[in-house]
Design brief:
The chain has two domains: 88 residues, NE0471 N-terminal domain-like (2-Layer Sandwich), CATH 3.30.2020; 264 residues, Clavaminate synthase-like (Double-stranded beta-helix, 4-Layer Sandwich). Helices cover 24% and strands 29% of the residues. It has a six-stranded mixed sheet with strand order 7-8-19-11-22-9. Strands 10-20-13-18 form a four-stranded antiparallel sheet. It has a three-stranded antiparallel sheet with strand order 1-2-3. A hairpin with a 2-residue loop joins strand 14 and strand 15. Helix 4 crosses helix 9, helix 6 packs across helix 8 and helix 7 crosses helix 8. The radius of gyration is 26 Å and the shape is elongated. The two termini are 37 Å apart. The chain binds fe (ii) ion (FE2) and zinc ion (ZN). Zinc ion binds next to loops.
Length: 377
């Protein structure tokens, strides 16, 4: 039975006989045309204009089953708000649980066992079948490493693919970045444009918001060596949290400055290697030995940091966690760059052509595509 209390009302719902909704919350979420724009669905009411003593002068529930409506008349301006009971049930916050989102990840941490089962998708099918595109996007979200096979061997394809999925995230790399050991032909301002081994790293930790999704398109991979490597940074960090919480905490609180300079800019940012959300869950993993600036910590902190950093780096580089695999001409490797590190072995540039094109997307834009694909089915 509906009951009016001092600052909230109690409403029996099918799943919760004593659901509570605060008056300020209800008034704030009024969906009348004065409070919410009828076409953009954005809030027009200024939340901070709601009087502190807001309360109903009356409230009642009418209608039957799923059409039931809660109608509230407020003590200011006799404003009337109506809420469908169905909507209230979907937004019942009495349990203190955040609303689940249709794009929420189901994180699957992985180690060397992923080697045999990296999720692989067919380029054509991704374009023909929305369920395949959704499965691929969810694998990027949940596993953070996928291979799309059979992409056309056309320069610029990776930029087109990014626009097909979501939108290109630009950085101070070229919008379409070439990785090829041909200095003079392409910009060669980073170590990827040499034939050296690249230890596992994430791209662009020099941004406060690094690009969330990284995509390599192999236009040619005929050279000897150059096998790709990948590591689940979240898995390694969780293992470190269990084994050595002191090292984990140092890495989660010590800012490290990263810097990248190109013909288009000088972008720098200082953040901890492990960023946690307010609940302590891993949110962003930053790791790039090649872009890290000299540490400028106190004498006491320096020793502790190096101990923790070495431990993390050795775990990332160990075959317990790191997988190695060969990508073929026509493959697109896609990683969650906020979690999964990538690298490659050294290679012999004289043994065959090796040319990659690289583009980025933001993770939010891939989650957006997941929501749109889900709501269309
Ligand atoms: Fe990279
Ligand atoms: Zn209203």
């Amino acid at each position: 039975m509906l009951a009016l209390k001092t600052s909230w009302l109690e409403l029996p719902l099918a799943d919760n006989p004593k659901a509570m909704f605060h008056y300020a919350w209800l008034r704030d979420n009024c969906c009348c045309v004065e409070c919410k724009h009828p076409t953009t669905h954005e809030r027009v009411l200024a939340t901070f204009d709601i009087p502190d003593d807001i309360a109903p002068t009356s409230a009642d529930v009418s209608g039957i089953d799923s059409d039931k409506i809660l109608r509230v008349v407020w003590n200011h301006n006799q404003h009337v708000s109506e809420f469908s009971i169905k909507w209230l049930a979907e937004h019942d916050y009495s349990g203190g649980v955040c609303l689940a989102d249709s794009a929420d990840p189901a994180l699957l941490l992985w180690g060397k066992e992923l080697h045999e089962k990296i999720p692989r998708f067919d380029y054509q099918k991704l374009h023909q079948d929305p369920s395949q595109l959704l499965a691929w996007a969810e694998a990027v979200r949940d596993i953070g490493l996928t291979i799309v096979q059979g992409a056309p061997l056309v320069e610029g394809e990776i930029e087109r693919f990014a626009e097909y999925v979501a939108v290109v995230r630009e950085t101070i790399y070229d919008r379409l970045h070439n990785v090829k050991a041909s200095p003079g032909e392409y910009n060669a301002y980073n170590v990827a444009s040499t034939t050296l081994e690249l230890k596992p790293h994430t791209d662009m930790p020099n941004y406060n918001n690094p690009p969330g999704v990284q995509m390599f398109h192999f236009l040619a991979n005929e050279s000897v060596g150059g096998e790709s490597t990948a590591v689940d940074g979240f898995h390694v960090a969780e293992q470190l949290r269990k084994e050595d919480s002191e090292a984990f905490n140092i890495l989660a609180r010590t800012p490290v400055r990263f810097k990248m300079v190109s013909s288009r800019g000088d972008v720098q940012a200082a953040n901890p290697l492990l960023t946690l959300d307010p609940l302590g869950n891993l949110k962003v993993f930053r790791f790039s030995n090649q872009l890290a600036e000299p540490l400028m910590l106190s004498v006491d902190e320096t020793e502790g940091f190096y101990r923790a950093y070495r431990k993390l780096g050795r775990m990332l580089d160990s075959t317990d966690y790191k997988i190695q695999f060969r990508l073929n001409t026509g493959d697109i490797m896609v990683t969650n760059n906020l979690r999964v590190l990538h690298g490659r072995n050294s290679y012999d540039a004289n043994s065959g052509a090796r040319h990659l094109q690289l583009s980025y997307m933001d993770f939010d834009d891939v989650l957006s595509r997941i929501r749109l694909l889900k709501s269309a089915t």
